[in-house]
Amino acid sequence: MEKKQFQLNDIVEMKKQHPCGTNAWKIIRMGADIRIKCEGCQHSVMIPRKEFEKKMKKLLVQADAE
């Protein structure tokens, strides 16, 4: 299986949507754990990288490479 590519400030779609009704999340911190922020209600969640890679569906918006 191909490894999913993502980086800081990317907006990703998760398999399950947030209770506020959106499933677009922005990656705001990366490390052993990844913190993502809901684009609808701005709630943030920190989850382990392995779990994030399993629950991430696809990349919606790629952050500008600087």
TrEMBL record:
Organism per entry: Psychrobacillus psychrotolerans
Protein name per UniProt: DUF951 domain-containing protein
InterPro entries in the record: DUF951
